[in-house]
What we know:
By secondary structure, the protein is an alpha+beta fold. Helices cover 21% and strands 30% of the residues. Strands 1, 2, 3, 4, 5, 6, 7, 8, 9 and 10 form a ten-stranded mixed β-sheet that branches.
Amino acid sequence: MKKMLMILCWCWVLLFAGALQAAPNHTVVLAQLHEKYPAYYAHGVFLVDESEQRMYWYADGALVRSYVISTAANGLGAQAESNKTPPGAHRIISKIGKNAKRGAVFDKLQNTGRVAKIYTRPQYGVTALVLSRILRLEGLEPGKNKGGNVDTFNRAIYFHGTNKEGNLGKRASHGCIRMNNDEIIDLFDQVSVDTLVYIQP
């Protein structure tokens, strides 16, 4: 019995140590963003980690919550028609879909009035839809994600709910950042236009 308790204790220690090791440390990038974009930083920061397929929401430098997301199946890139997620610093330029139903289908940023079925298991033969809420992005870095043929706003890149929730956590979108519908509805009501967004590899 004593031996069993010791084994269980060591298991908890190892699990705790692993969790600490896996915990993200965004201190440096947050400091850089604070220095470069203080006005937007004051509204909070969405740090999108493409390699982890997670988004971290920070307020006043403290982690509020993290979310499982999906960025582009084609990876990172800002070129028009590349179907890639643009890297670098952005801001939320507009919020679309206030009071829309959960699962409301949006086409070209307009609520169609239809409500989609939401799949919580992985789906590969189902057309991806834009649902529930939209947080549209504007690039802040000329030549990287703003202007010319690398313009995030003109490419219509945004956070949005998805009908393919079961595919979250994997690269799957056509450039936008997909989220769980309940989570983006909740987030939509808590964040403002001009929230800073940083998309990193």
